[in-house]
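Sample 1 of the test manifest.
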Amino acid sequence: MTDAQDIRAGEVPLDFDPAGRAHAGVTFIGRIRSDWSKGNAPRNISQAREMGGGDPRIELDPAYAPGLQGLEVGRPIWLLYWMNRGRRDLILQAPRHAPEPRGVFALRSPVRPNPIAMSAVVITSLDPKTGVIGIDATDAFDMTPLLDIKPWMAGIDIPPCI
Amino acid sequence: MTDAQDIRAGEVPLDFDPAGRAHAGVTFIGRIRSDWSKGNAPRNISQAREMGGGDPRIELDPAYAPGLQGLEVGRPIWLLYWMNRGRRDLILQAPRHAPEPRGVFALRSPVRPNPIAMSAVVITSLDPKTGVIGIDATDAFDMTPLLDIKPWMAGIDIPPCI
C-alpha cells in the first residue's frame, strides 16, 4: 500500500498512528460483495446507483444469519463496514474536489482514525438461511469487511435541521 | 454488569462471544458528555430532544481538534460511538416495545456484535482549539467513547426509497 502512504500538499498527519492505539476490538460479521476494486470503483454510492449492474450483496457469516429476522425486501438499512486499505493518521486532507485542505471530520474520506464507513441501501433480496442479502447498490470494494447492519429510521437518521 | 447478562424469554445468544474475536482495533478519539447515566437516560434521541437541557457536547482529544476544520455551527453531523456496557452475543432480542423477538440487525439496540451506535445531531457551538463541540442533543451516557464524526449529507444518508 505504498501509494496510500503518500501525502498531498497541505495534508497533515497526526504525530501518532491511531492504528497503534486500539481501545476496543471489532469483529467482522461478513463481507460486501461487489464488482469494484482499486481502479474501477465509483466515486460514491450515488454514482454506483447510476452505473447499476453487478450483483451487489452482503454475505453474512452463517452464525449471524438469525439476526436478520424482522428485515424484509424493500426496507432501507445501514451498512457499517471497515475501510481497511488506507492510513489512519491524516488529520487534514486535501481531496481533489475541495479548494483547500479540510479536517477529516468534515469529510467522508475512508482515510480516518477509525475507518468505519456507512451506507444507506435498500434490501432487494434476503435469504435468512444463507445470510445473503441483495442490496440496491454499493461503492465498497469487493470483500470489504462488514461490521453491522441496522434498520434505517427517518426519525433518528434525519437530523432536525433538515 | 450482572443485569446485562440476563436473557429475556425468546432471546437467543450466539454460541460464541464476538468480543473474543477481534479482527481490527478501534481507537477512542474523545467522549460524549451528557447528563445521562444508567437509570435516567432518555429512550432515544427524539426523547432527549424533547427533554432538552443538560449541556450535551463532545470533548475531542486535543490531538484530533485540527480535524474539525471545515465544520461550523448549524451543520448536521454523525457521531459514531462505542456502546461498551452490554453483551455482544444476543442474535435474537426481545425488546419491550416489540410483540415478538427480532434479529439484532432489525433493531437499533446497543447490544450487538459490534456495539457501534450512530446519532445525527446538529452542531450548536464549536471550539477548534479545545476540541469541544456543543450538540443539540444526545441520548448517550456521560463519558461514552467517541469513534468518529462525519458530515451528514442528504444525498448519501437518505436512501433512495424514501
